[in-house]
User: What shape does this take?
Amino acid sequence: MINMPGVRRRSSWVLPLVVLLILAEFWTIVTVATYIGVGATILIILCVSVIGAMLTRAQGQNFAARMQAHLAGGNAPEHIVNNTLGLLLAGIFLIIPGFLTDLIALALLIPPLRHATARHFMRRVTGTSFSGMAGFGRNLNENGNEIIDVTPKEDGSSRDS
Assistant: This one.
């Protein structure tokens, strides 16, 4: 593999994890179908997929308006992005046919888990979080003036460099 600066190698565990998830989903669907019947299983999967599509569409439509209103108030976008990203991931997992992905989606609907997952996802994809970007996550005093921390880091450089 060619080493290119600035490009991270994808983790080697992603493909086996996806294959394992597909096999586990297939086994779960077959098992559920033997207990409640094929028709009921297909109906449940279709209904959950429709709910997931509606959730994903609603989150996508509302994202721009919420982000604009949040930024107009001078707030950092991290909360809005994390919340929307988590709900979009939940919607995508609901669209994917299967019961295990539905359980993952339901877990993502729990706010603390949703925010933690979205923050982790953003760090993995971008290498940073929104609070570390310029203009956001600033400390302000009671007069609204920015407080700049010039305490040296352990390596001797300032925090602002």
About this structure: The longest helix spans residues 38-72. Confidence is low (pLDDT under 50) at residues 131-137. Residues 78 and 98 are 31 Å apart (CA to CA). The chain has one domain: 14-128.
